[in-house]
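User: Assemble these into one structure.

Assistant: Restating your components, then the assembled model:
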Amino acid sequence: MVDVSGKPPTERRAVAEAIVTLAPETISLIVDGRLAKGDVLTVAEMAGVMGAKRTAELIPLCHPLPLSDVLVEITPERAAGGLRIRASVATTGPTGVEMEALTAASVAALTVYDMVKSVDRGAIIRDLRLLEKSGGRSGAWTRPDVPVEEGRRPRGRQRR
Amino acid sequence: MVDVSGKPPTERRAVAEAIVTLAPETISLIVDGRLAKGDVLTVAEMAGVMGAKRTAELIPLCHPLPLSDVLVEITPERAAGGLRIRASVATTGPTGVEMEALTAASVAALTVYDMVKSVDRGAIIRDLRLLEKSGGRSGAWTRPDVPVEEGRRPRGRQRR
Amino acid sequence: MVDVSGKPPTERRAVAEAIVTLAPETISLIVDGRLAKGDVLTVAEMAGVMGAKRTAELIPLCHPLPLSDVLVEITPERAAGGLRIRASVATTGPTGVEMEALTAASVAALTVYDMVKSVDRGAIIRDLRLLEKSGGRSGAWTRPDVPVEEGRRPRGRQRR
Amino acid sequence: MVDVSGKPPTERRAVAEAIVTLAPETISLIVDGRLAKGDVLTVAEMAGVMGAKRTAELIPLCHPLPLSDVLVEITPERAAGGLRIRASVATTGPTGVEMEALTAASVAALTVYDMVKSVDRGAIIRDLRLLEKSGGRSGAWTRPDVPVEEGRRPRGRQRR
Amino acid sequence: MVDVSGKPPTERRAVAEAIVTLAPETISLIVDGRLAKGDVLTVAEMAGVMGAKRTAELIPLCHPLPLSDVLVEITPERAAGGLRIRASVATTGPTGVEMEALTAASVAALTVYDMVKSVDRGAIIRDLRLLEKSGGRSGAWTRPDVPVEEGRRPRGRQRR
Amino acid sequence: MVDVSGKPPTERRAVAEAIVTLAPETISLIVDGRLAKGDVLTVAEMAGVMGAKRTAELIPLCHPLPLSDVLVEITPERAAGGLRIRASVATTGPTGVEMEALTAASVAALTVYDMVKSVDRGAIIRDLRLLEKSGGRSGAWTRPDVPVEEGRRPRGRQRR
């Protein structure tokens, strides 16, 4: 574990993303709410939020941190052939929350798979990656290959 | 949660895989044991094993199950541009362990990212997916696009 | 902890219930999906399911058990002045799942409170109690004061 | 999860209560220390304290917070027909600890039930509710229907 | 993790012990119930029982197992200069519970230390070790240097 | 739980130690990396770090705290007849981290035992104790009987 003793707490945020590739019929089942296991988007978003809070238990060298915000949003995208999962996490602390954002996106993606696996066992979780981070001594970072408009928070959905 | 009351316990196994794409220099740092945070392969394999045991806490509709085997193996592959993570999980129970195998691979991959992120923030976790499962009423399944020789367990490494 | 060594595993089920008393406007906000924190029924049902799986961690003398079914259903009842939460849990094991059913109902009820507390701080969780249990040496038990028709599982909702 | 980024940490406290209704003989067994499972009051108070620390794991949208105080006190009250459980929780943080106090009271109540259920299966957990909170932007709140003298901390018991 | 797939479940038990060495006055404070933090023996016994249930989360290569019995007993022994902690754990499973017994004793001992550290910071946890195990292919084992009469379960205390 | 409301956060550190006594051949197996279960030192150090983060879940009256550093180092010492485990933990908080350091050392020691128990069932965990603490109102404390040179952090190993 990196020793962060004596580092002052600062506001930090990190955003991560994953794609779950699904068969077209599976996307329809999700959008139409016809899956036997229930409301995939709500359940997976919530699982992602809860997963973020378990990061320090799962990742051996992560610092346990209070979190001031966790937001997970899952958007069906037929063009991308699946669901886009975006997780945004914030803290006021001595170290960053990149792992929390990635863990949130990962647990949300695994939950999607669990809920569709009886009808789409071949679904794949792709491209789990950090999109951006801010705060801390190393400052802001944005993944070079992300178009600007993707960085905006989707509107019109309830925050969770 | 699917009601599995009355289903007899049977032996089941599932194998999942993920790839962590890394910069070539990062692969060298890992292989040469020169990363400040320590022995990436051993730590991430162990985190994956521990992660498998937390699956039912993370994935809302997973059944808590006793596990009879969890094996996580991480192999540097310069040709694939990163690390290949393979997780194999077994139980004797009324339902399968696909989610446990996927969770193990996912937590191992996240741990790799955590240990390299100071030198390779752009690393990506790609293609987390089920490779095969056996046991249970639905029987054996193998992902169609996996060449046969990939299905073999690597030799000459300590099991964990 | 009661020593259950040598007791044969048998199929067991327990059903518990709680009522969350809410202001009439709060019930409307929930039913109409207008609460800022999101879909109360789905989130609370899911939290109840996950809570059932943590029972042995929370209750000191509970045995850790594999669970074969957890179902939590929350029904708005204007006549009862709130939400009715019903949790049904099953296992095949040497001891019963009364505590798992009660814990599921309790965590679901607490989650409801968390999601409405900004608009209805005075909400009360009332009458958390076991309704019935079956299986095991002591056999079936039904709470005397529960009318028969309440024992039926609600229809037409997705199972979770 | 409500975004509390940028909110300054302030001292906060919340007090919650539950009643466990028991048969008169069960109260006697508890008071006289004659229950086979042991010292109900001490065990349940301890379980309540530990439960408070798990709140953010159980309640999906709760923020993980450091806690500066958790006190759970259980008082047999023959007049009320059972045990009165009171939980008081404090933090210095950007959000309140109402859910922690309610979770502590809830887990303590469930633990009482677990320890008496072999002799009093019909016991009921009633009236789990917030009594008061202080600190934070919304300031102090006291449940209107609680007589003033109930707000005092019981004396003469060890704090836990 | 050792692969125990296909091994039949059998009844198994393990007994472990630890000694907490304390100043004579500390032993008196515990026996007389005069410590500010409360009833050390009851709280530490209960923490040990709960700790046994967390073994597979703490010890990387331990199998998650259902437990059929956990008993922790703490006995003040002025002659030994402290407290003797004995933990006995049973399962019906494919592998043994030595680690569960040792973890129970260890968590109970740490809890004792936590409750006395303000008055006896120099207390030492000594000689945490397995006393005996039974069941499984390797059969029964008893530590050679334990006198026979120590193997008996203490009488006259409530089981927990 | 001791009420630490209103106490200002200060930097604190605690160091604890344990010895695992092993047969000489077991020490050789560990040092030569010939144990079937893998790299004992790395796995046990990692388990100790993760164990420190679970302290407040295991020890009933411990406060949950953010941790700014956890370092566990295990050194084979043939002269001492085993492995020396040293854990150092830091926080910036209102209370100390003695229990976190002791828990880290304890979990690391238990993990060592788990990995050697098939070849050395009689191994003993001895002398788990606090070596020193600093910070907080009570200030610095060093165990009287520890020679000064033992207090130095070992050099030339990767920090973890």
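Confidence is low (pLDDT under 50) at residues 148-157 of chain C.
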